[in-house]
């Protein structure tokens, strides 16, 4: 069974992105989804590569053990939340064997607006491809994310649920090929 590391771009305890991941953990229970926290990573600074920074080392080692990465994130100002960008920067070096080189990655974005963070999604895919990742060519952007959950935080929109299940199943196949 593939180990899929999960990066949630929102740090909020009330995060809708996190609720999407919670749903997938239940619906795709045959997959080994491993949530990876990156909020303790110091900001990337090349000067510190020689020190070394223990948090970066541990994070890189854990990601090395993952067969693939699933990113679920809100759009922030038409772009990527800063903490998630820092985590990707940490994984993108040191060269020549960056830690996301050839790593299969699926990007899911969400937003409170209609478009579901499509601008951020395409932007994140672009920067991951630049860093050498094997990004799945899907544009999964969930708009009006606040409307797809019931009062208990459970996913209630069956169309979104079907779309998410199908995307993650396809991604698991993509990651194994
Ligand atoms: C700093 C910030 C920037 C945001 N920028 C955008 C944006 O560019 N486009 C958009 O549709 N929504 C934007 N939003 C709204 C978020 O998409 C929405 O709050 C989303 O639910 C946050 O995800 P979360 O619930 O996982 O924390 C922004 C929210 C914040 C806090």
UniProtKB/TrEMBL annotation:
Stretches assigned to the NADPH-dependent FMN reductase-like domain: 3-145
Gene3D superfamilies the UniProt entry points to: 3.40.50.360
GO molecular function: FMN binding; oxidoreductase activity
One Pfam entry name: FMN_red
A cellular component term, taken from the record's GO annotations: cytosol
InterPro entries referenced in this protein's UniProt entry, alphabetically: Flavoprotein-like_sf, FMN_Rdtase-like_dom, NAD(P)H-dep_reductase
Top-level taxon of the source organism: Bacteria
UniProt xrefs under SUPFAM superfamilies: Flavoproteins
TM stretches of this protein: none
PANTHER family found in the cross-reference section: CHROMATE REDUCTASE (PTHR30543), NAD(P)H-DEPENDENT FMN REDUCTASE LOT6 (PTHR30543:SF21)
Protein name: NAD(P)H-dependent oxidoreductase
